[in-house]
Amino acid sequence: MYDMLTALINGALGWGWPEWALNLLSYILIVTIVLVVAPLQMLFFTYYERRVIARMQDRVGPNRVGPEGIWQPIADGVKMFTKEDIVPQAADRIVHFLAPCVVVAPTVLMFAVVPWGPGMVPVDLPTGLLFFFAISSISAVGLMMAGWASNNKFSLLGAMRAVAQMVSYEIPAVLSLIAIVIIVGSLSINEIIAYQAGLIISNRDLPGVPDLGLGWFVFTPVGFVAFVAFFIAALAEGERTPFDIPEADSEIVAGYMTEYSGMKFGLFYLAQYVLNFLLCAITAIIFFGGWQGPGVGWLYAQGITPANPNGNGLFNVLAGILGVFYFLLKTYIFFFVMVWLRGAFPRLRIDQLMDFGWKFLIPWTLANLFSAALWVAFTRWGPAEGMLITVGWSPVLRWLAAFVVTLAINLGVYLWLTRVYAASQAERRRAELEELSAAA
Amino acid sequence: MEVVVQMVFGLIALFILVAAAMVVSVRNVIHSALWLIACFFGVGALYLLLEAEFLAVVQVLVYVGAVSVLILFAIMLTRQISGEGVRQLTSRWPVVLVVTVLLFATVMTPTLINQQWNVPPAPPLGTPEPIAGPAELGRGFVNEFLIQFQVVGVLLTVALIGAIVIAFEERARRRKVLTLAEELELKRLRERTTQTETPEPVEAEPVARETRPASEG
Predict the structure, then answer these.
(1) Residues A304, A329: one domain?
(2) Which residue of A has its CA nearest to B128?
(3) First vs last Cα of chain A: how many Å apart?
(4) Predicted-complex ipTM score
(5) How many domains is chain A built from?
(6) Do residue A134 and residue B69 have CB atoms under 8 angstroms apart?
(7) Which range of residues forms the domain containing residue A44?
(8) Is A220:A206 a contact under the CB 8 Å cutoff?
(9) What is the pLDDT of residues A205-241, one digit of tens each?
(10) What range does the domain containing B78 cover?
(11) CATH number at residue B51
(12) A47-62: per-residue pLDDT in tens?
């Protein structure tokens, strides 16, 4: 954005603005775009989810406001704004007021590191991925504040459930991402995307592979396991249906949002859908290449880049449009899968949720971490690091060896873990039955 | 530029001090926990001002995201949640203040007296900090500070095992809240055994579900 503005104001228009003014203007523009895009995505997602889930449940869904009901979210928004804001008399007014802000602010801040297209990232932090997860963990505090300040037992129960779930599923999510970070060797989201150029195989692992933007991590055994584990953990983080225990409406009304009405409730709703969008987006970015896709790399190479300052600006725009298209397409497909799961599965019990997270996902992702280390050893290490087997192998052979070894490890661990987990669940069930018969 | 940095530092430092003072002076224990979180945030901002970006992010991840949540959990599970707590400050707080100031002074005075305040000139913008990045920190952990790293690891494992030992309950001694399905199962089992024995009343709340989030989280 800064480069573009510099080229436009000081180059084409020749106004000669100072550097600080250009910086300020570019950041104001970026922040405005991010703050406008976040609620718009949320509005679209509510409509999208309602239509899709309606189709799955053999209904029509919202179709009255505008063509095919496309303005329904705006009507809902207007309704939210005009509702009365009710605060319970026994509530802690200040904390009750602050809680929605503490929940919404981190979700919007997370947009700061999400790249939309080639060269289209608001801030390219060297620790972008870590920033994303650090910021997302703040909203747990907001949920706790909401649950406690409402002075309602359902709210408090909901908040406790939400936070317990978030804290325990953060671990497999982060562990599965660390596997990718080990392979890339960087926490920067831009570098993770750049690594996924190529054709099925990343052209960093195998030089000479044509760049079709398809070297996604999901095609490798390590990336696939990490993707599945991360997506399950993302469902739990975003409180999507198999894991929507915190707001199980048949048990505890609406969880931590029970005592909120009007726009404060709207803010919780906003935070939830924005978080879902971001989780889908980060899944697309880390495992499916983000904006990478056929054509984007070629188009971007023709445009104005730091490596090629004399390029044609038109190609930048084209690459940006194509990149954003791929990125949003992947994101929306993941959200569709989330809605699909909501249509297909019932809610888990809290003990099943905890068992699955701690006893299955965490060991699985830990084993995956080991495979990731082996992957790096096979594809990149030489005699200097003590890797003597691969001396003299061609890159193709090294890549194939890494693929086979990690596949064997991941598959073996998966089969073993499912057996152990099933046995432990059966044992637990048996012990519970025994206890019951003892009580009888 | 220098002046702006100084001003921002002053504001953040003031914020941290105010938040820390509020932690010990508010009456409600949940409020003091929330002020503590604000204080952690301020420290994170201070790291960011020092261009230690990785440390700042880790500060937010560990302290705001995990430690504070555990503190909130602990408070909510160990005392009456909604009741206004007693004052956190003891009645003898002046004595405590004097002792703390004296202790702090013993640490700080030699530093303040002997320190040569020749601050090195700031490096040109954009140069990476020597130990700010994750790669440098990781290398430090496995080379220079290996022993410390191992000791911390063992310590944390011991703490983990200790927590499990303390929290572990014998299955037989646990007072179980039955789910509806288990109630039904129990009823069926009892019907099967009524021919021989007389049924005893079982202490179990009918519709209550099993909700022990914190003990597992």
Answers:
(1) yes
(2) A126
(3) 72
(4) 0.76
(5) 2
(6) no
(7) 1-77
(8) no
(9) 677 777 777 778 888 888 888 999 999 988 888 877 7
(10) 2-132
(11) 1.20.120.1200
(12) 888 888 888 888 887 8
